[in-house]
Design a protein that fits this description.
single chain, 137 residues, mainly alpha
């Protein structure tokens, strides 16, 4: 028998924050879809954007527990947003490809699953890393 693979606590916290952010994303998406004539990709982008801001704030303080001194907003937020724009492109690609075949909500669920791995990996690798020690101190 093989040794069980341990799931990092950061991944579990990321998933919990992701559930909340996904709820926010879906609420905005569905609210906009209820407005007649709203393009599905616009609703997707708006929901995703609100979810990204919530995600940054919660992942910074709860998931990766980065102290404010270690994570200045001016440095980390633009990187987070840029990486999440890649996630938005992936999400929009999935929604755009699936909407002709399935209802918008089903396409949105599939897109959310597709972007989870990308968002976790890129956040952990590039945004919420510990700062390198200063060799001059």
């Amino acid at each position: 028998m093989g040794r069980p693979v341990a799931i990092p606590w950061t991944a579990i916290r990321f998933a919990l924050v992701g559930l909340l952010n996904t709820g926010i994303d879906f609420a905005v998406f569905l609210a906009l879809m209820a407005v007649p004539g709203t393009p599905v990709l616009l609703a997707n982008a708006c929901g995703y954007g609100v979810g990204v801001l919530s995600s940054f704030l919660l992942n910074r303080s709860f998931t990766f527990r980065v102290h404010r001194d270690d994570a200045p907003l001016a440095r980390r937020l633009p990187v987070f947003v840029a990486l999440n724009l890649v996630g938005l492109a992936l999400s929009s690609l999935v929604v755009g490809l699936l909407v002709p075949a399935v209802p918008p909500l089903a396409a949105k669920v599939a897109a959310t699953v597709a972007t989870f791995a990308w968002n976790y990996w890129s956040s952990r690798r590039f945004v919420f890393t510990a700062p390198a020690p200063n060799p001059l101190v």
